[in-house]
Design a protein that fits this description.
By secondary structure, this protein is α/β, with parallel strands linked by helices. Helices cover 34% and strands 25% of the residues. The chain has two domains: 4-239, 3-Layer(aba) Sandwich (Rossmann fold); 258-504, Rossmann fold (3-Layer(aba) Sandwich). The chain contains 19 helices and 22 strands. α14 (373-387) crosses α15 (403-415) and α15 (403-415) packs parallel to α16 (433-448). Bound molecules: adenosine-5'-diphosphate (ADP) and magnesium ion. Residues 15, 18, 20, 38, 40-46 line the site of adenosine-5'-diphosphate.
Length: 508
């Protein structure tokens, strides 16, 4: 084992309402490739953002190359010490060239002008050193596939003489050939004595490159060791077991008749031959890791994205859905993940938000006529009373409501219509525990009204707590189905991580 490069000890970090890191320690050595594992929300990204100076720790000690790191650490200082992070979401400037991105913020100039020739030359040299071919420094970033963009990020880090590289879920969007190239580079970097922290859920691939593993759960350090000393089951069982601090008021009722049938739905890389049924009075949960294809599946069903093939049947009748309007008419509603952006007009009042999708039925003389206030009030009262929306008055801007009440307005506007299926994408993300419970109550009420409710949730305790039946997705496919009685965190996570080993696939 090489000499110690980074130590983090007893690190704590809180965000409003959540303790993201609780007494976490980590040691990284020269020439070590460490897998950092943990479920969604375990605190992996937060820990790495502290290491790379993006976030400041609340307490705890850190050393880098033996040097004590003070609380005034920041991204610039981290860079100067040779720490580079390649974020989960790549942040390159799409309109700039490869070389311009690599030299962004420390452009080379000559007599007061950008020396593009020199920057292109140095970028080419760096790419050459990494044995990356067919990547021209003068290409505009937007023209490159994700994998190549990632290579540019890595090149940039190496140009900055990075000695410690953090890669946060780098391989999720890569093709087989791109994963192969990434792994080759990681191995080269290790041979050069660089240290790498590699965050990934793709357990199947890790053995190709990692030496050690550190596992986190619920903001805590759980265990570490040599990767090859763990079985797949041991890795997973160390990751699961998040404490359940929410109350899930799930009402059990007999399952009604089949409402929705989705048959062999295909839509892009993340919706591959998806088939399932949903029933009246049942909550069907979609579990999986971020990026598994659940949002994409719901968007394809809702007609928000086009599908390549597949059939959607509602109450026994095939529905021809080509746009959200078709879906709404057929009785399918989608409550999107980002309600401020996609689900709600925050500048309109509660009244207007609820009335909006119901305009055809409350306008005299059809769509363009004047609004029939009496009908409008009926609809708003119906929505308000069935969901007990607490508010000063219907005239308040929707944007001023709490997260839970905003969610209720989004649902209320659909209740006036005869919706048959309501799909919630991450319905409780970013809202407090009390509001979460309110949303679970809404779900119960919808269930009682005979609506087929579909919930997409990445929070394991939540999806287990509110669903009657659970489907698990991984990489655009359904990889598991279980009733709420059968479901266990280990079972769900095992299905959620059924990735193909892209390297093995590429080699064969
Ligand atoms: N900028 C932030 N503001 C508020 N909460 C955050 C922020 N970043 C992360 N969190 C919360 O901290 C916890 C750990 O998140 P994260 O480090 O992103 O986990 P992971 O990368 O393991 O999925 C989660 O509960 C998350 O919601
Ligand atoms: Mg993360």
């Amino acid at each position: 084992m090489g000499k110690v490069v980074v130590t983090m000890s007893h690190v704590n970090k809180s965000f409003p309402g959540v303790k993201a890191l609780d007494d976490v320690s980590l040691t990284l050595r020269e020439g070590e490739v460490m897998a950092l594992l943990g479920e969604n929300g375990a605190g992996k990204s937060t820990l790495m953002k502290i290491l790379s100076g993006v976030y400041t720790r609340d307490s705890g000690e850190m050393t880098v190359f033996g040097k004590e790191i003070g609380m005034d650490f920041n991204a610039k200082k981290a860079r100067e010490l040779g720490i580079a992070i390649i974020h989960q979401e790549l942040n390159m400037c799409q309109q700039l060239t490869v070389a311009e991105n690599i030299f962004l913020g420390r452009e080379i100039t000559r007599r007061g002008r950008l020396d593009n020739q020199e920057m292109n030359r140095l970028a080419a040299k760096q790419l050459e050193q990494m044995h990356i071919r067919d990547l021209d420094p003068e290409t505009e970033m937007s023209r490159l596939p994700v994998g190549k963009q990632q290579m540019v990020e890595i090149s940039k880090a190496l140009m900055l003489q990075a000695k410690v590289l953090v890669m946060d879920e780098p391989s999720s969007a890569l093709s087989n050939a791109e994963v192969e190239e990434l792994f080759r580079i990681v191995k080269e970097l290790r041979e050069q004595g660089k240290s790498i922290v590699y965050i990934s859920h793709r357990l199947q691939e890790l053995h190709h490159i990692v030496d050690t593993v550190t596992i986190m759960r619920d903001g805590r350090y759980i265990t570490e060791g040599k990767f090859r000393d763990f079985t797949m089951d041991e890795l997973i069982s160390n990751m699961v077991g998040r404490k359940i601090d929410n109350q899930f008021p799930r009402e059990i009722m007999p399952r009604g008749k089949k409402v929705l049938e989705v048959q062999h739905l295909n839509a892009g890389r993340l919706v591959r031959d998806v088939s399932f049924d949903a029933y009246a009075g049942e909550v069907l949960g979609f579990a999986g890791l971020v990026g598994a294809g659940r949002t994409e599946t719901s968007r394809a069903i809702f007609g928000a994205d086009s599908k390549e093939s597949g059939k959607i049947i509602i109450d026994g009748k095939t529905a021809d859905i080509n746009c959200p309007r078709d879906a709404i008419d057929a009785g399918i509603v989608l409550v999107p993940e980002d309600r401020k952006k996609d689900g709600l007009c925050t500048k309109l009042s509660i009244r207007e938000n609820i009335a909006l999708p119901n305009l055809p039925s409350i306008c005299r003389n059809g769509f363009i006529g004047t609004i029939d206030r009496k009908k409008e009030n009926e609809i708003i009262e119906k929505g308000k009373s069935s969901l007990t929306i607490k508010m000063a008055g219907a005239e308040a801007d929707a944007g001023t409501l709490s997260g839970g009440n905003q969610q209720k307005v989004v649902v209320a506007k659909w209740l006036a219509r005869n919706s048959r299926v309501i799909i919630f994408d991450e319905p409780t993300r970013g809202i407090d525990v009390a509001a979460k419970v309110e949303i679970y109550e809404i779900i119960n009420q919808l269930k009682k009204q005979g609506i087929a409710v579909i919930i997409i949730s990445s929070e394991m305790p939540e999806v287990m707590g509110i669903s009657d039946r659970i489907l698990v997705m991984c990489d655009g496919r359904i990889t598991g189905e279980m009733s709420s009685d059968e479901a266990s965190e280990t079972g769900i996570l095992t299905c959620a991580m059924q990735f193909e080993d892209k390297l093995a696939a590429g080699a064969s």
